[in-house]
Amino acid sequence: MESNERVWREQGLRRAVLAGDEHAWRAWYEEEYASLYAFVLWRCGGLRDHADDVVQETWLTAVRRVRRFDPDRGSFAGYLRGIAGNVLRNHWRCQDRHRAAALNGHLAAPATDVRQRDQAERIARALGLLPERYENVLRAKYVDGQSVADIAAASGDTAKAVESLLTRARQAFREVYEKDE
Amino acid sequence: MNDPLDDLLTPHPAPADGAKLRQAILVRSTGVLRRRRRLKQVAWGLALAACYLAGMGTTRWFTPTPVPQTVQVTPPEPQPEVPAAPPSATALEYLALDSTDHRAELYRAAAERYREQGDLAAWVRCQDNALDATKQEDLAVSPDDDFVTIALKQDRQKQEKRDARKLD
Predict the structure, then answer these.
(1) Which end of chain A is more exposed for a tag (fewer CB within 10 A), N or C?
(2) If you count residue pairs, one on A and one on B, with CB atoms under 8 Å apart, how many are there?
């Protein structure tokens, strides 16, 4: 019932935005901004400058491609996270290239909190390398703050299955994170 | 004991001063929306203008061009000359009165015209005036003379004989 209501509402908003209704876009934006920013900041390992760039790029891509969003196939929040995932991938790829160029050119790394920044980038890269199922369950637990029972209810799985999935996801993250050390 | 993995995965709190970025992104994304709307309006306008021009073109190209009409001006056919109305009997009589060379002929013509009109008195008068203008040798009775002329000529001959007798 809630899903139907969500679909109906988002279809209306999509139509309004496609017709150029700025008020509809503002309402949608205000509704989703905080959760998207939290997700991106988490995926960026807490690095705010990266998160700001990614969030901006994500919203601009979303407004340009709003026609592709289909409320029947998923929520707008999910659509935004999908765009953010792609933007993050490109972002980190670009960062890696810059880092390699800096090392080749013997450029001095910024002195401020280098160790903390390096750790944050490792977290971000590790999250980006996880399979989607693992990333989703970790996001539900850490970013959305859902309990195992809530995640199980939302996904239609048992609590035990979710617990198991969560354990595997954490293990996978640990492996990727430590591998990057 | 807290798992260090939880520390790594626990999200950092969103910055308190994020309102500026939030507003900036909203302005930029709304600008994209506004530009798209204007582009759509312009596209509609152009489409309408194209339809209008296409209609104009169709009207112009498919309307048969008027064939220039050549006007042939034919010179007016020469009208047959209407013969001038013959002068009236009175006019002829006046002409005869003013003429010196053709008085006798003009009086005869006037006399003829009076005869056609049935004015017998005028007919006789003009014949008599014609004889006045006629040379002496032409006063002899001719077979072509009508009876009035014959009578007038004979009367003149009698008068001449009487005048000659009186002179004798």
Answers:
(1) N
(2) 69
